[in-house]
Design a protein that fits this description.
Order of helices and strands: EEEEEEEHHHHEEEHHHHHHHHH
Strand content: 5-15%
Strand order of the largest sheet: 4-3-2-1-7-6-5
Distance between the termini: 100 Å
Number of domains: 2
Shape: rod-shaped
Oligomer: single chain
Low-confidence stretches: none
Helix content: 40-55%
Largest sheet: 7 strands, antiparallel
């Protein structure tokens, strides 16, 4: 046994009882590699071999020590009063006990690992789950508040929303046809190179599309494209992800984002390329509202090379739309929405 490496041979006198009714018999007790050997002292003939790990002390703490080859019900016993032999057997048992698994300790380690894993999951998963949940359950009025906060931050880069009454009246008349009855459309004087869809079905159009275009078709098509490119939940989720967990918790509990929660979001939106919908879906939507796709395509690539599909498949390339989008007077009023 490795617990007894300092001994080349360990022997002691003992008194052996083969059965409970037998008389005690003097024996030599010796320790083998993994056995306790009981031998006749006169002939050295082995009388019994006990498995050392299985040896049980029947009277702990008393001398002579009484051992059995197994549990309390074993027939054989041996009495040993040699302190060195008793200590050697006890050391073997302690070494065996130290190598045994400790279910309680292992269970504790596994519990701590499980708790750590849950905490890590909470830190990594919970904030995103709360933000997704907030975006999913936000009522229309709350989503519009988030959209207005995003628009206010956009205004810091583009200038304030244009408010000329005659131009806004045209927008209000045109909005249901292009992006829906519950939508709101605003124009900012700065260049957006298209249109943005914000939370709460709030749309923002850059004044550059009005001043620099021969007609309203390009701007209108950009609004339709913005509607198709971003789902309502996607727009509010992107804004809430920018705001972060604490403001979103305020939104869930108090009903509105704290002031400044979307600071920098407008600049972030304006720095990204505008999302474009699938050409097939856009062409179908433009045909439905009576708008050609070529004016839209030319604002993306004036050469037409990158948007050839939109130009060649313009639903009104060889036909006149069923009704004009705006009258000349309406178009002029819309172009002047940022004037004065």
């Amino acid at each position: 046994m490795t617990a007894l490496t300092e001994f080349q041979r360990l022997e002691a006198q003992g008194s052996w009882r083969e059965t409970p009714d037998a008389r005690l018999r003097e024996v030599v007790v010796s320790v083998g590699d993994s056995t306790l050997i009981l031998s006749d002292p006169k002939s050295d003939t082995p009388l019994s071999h006990w498995s050392l790990p299985a040896v049980t002390r029947l009277n702990p703490g008393r001398t002579p020590a009484v051992y059995a080859p197994g549990s309390q019900g074993a027939d054989e016993t041996v009495e040993i009063d040699d302190a060195l032999m008793i200590d050697a057997i006890e050391r073997v048992h302690r070494a065996i006990a130290s190598r045994k698994a400790h279910p309680g300790r292992l269970r504790g380690v596994l519990t701590m690992m499980a708790v750590a894993a849950m905490l890590a999951a909470a830190v990594l998963w919970l904030p995103d789950a709360i933000i997704r949940h907030a975006a999913r359950i936000a009522p229309p009025a709350q989503a519009r508040q988030v959209g207005e906060a995003a628009l206010a931050d956009i205004e810091r880069s583009t200038g304030a929303v244009c408010t000329r009454a005659s131009g806004q009246a045209v927008l209000d008349w045109l909005t249901p046809r292009l992006v829906g009855q519950d939508a709101k459309l605003r124009v900012v004087p700065g260049a957006l190179n298209g249109a943005l869809r914000l939370p709460g079905n709030l749309y923002v159009l850059g004044g550059d599309l009005l001043v620099g275009s021969p007609g309203p078709e390009a701007a209108a098509a950009h609004l339709v494209a913005a509607r198709l490119a971003s789902a309502p939940e996607t727009t509010i989720r992107a804004a809430l992800e920018h705001a972060g967990l604490q403001p979103v918790l305020r939104l869930l509990t108090l009903g509105r984002l704290p002031s400044g929660a979307l600071a920098g979001y407008g600049e972030d939106l304006l720095s990204r390329p505008l999302a474009r919908p699938d050409d097939t879906a856009l062409l179908a939507a433009l045909q439905q509202v009576g708008i050609g796709s070529e004016p839209y395509a030319r604002t993306i690539d004036p050469t037409g090379q990158a948007v050839l599909n939109l130009i060649e498949n313009d639903p009104f390339r060889d036909a006149v739309p069923p009704m004009p989008l705006l009258t000349d007077q309406q178009w002029l009023a819309l172009q002047q929405i940022c004037a004065g």
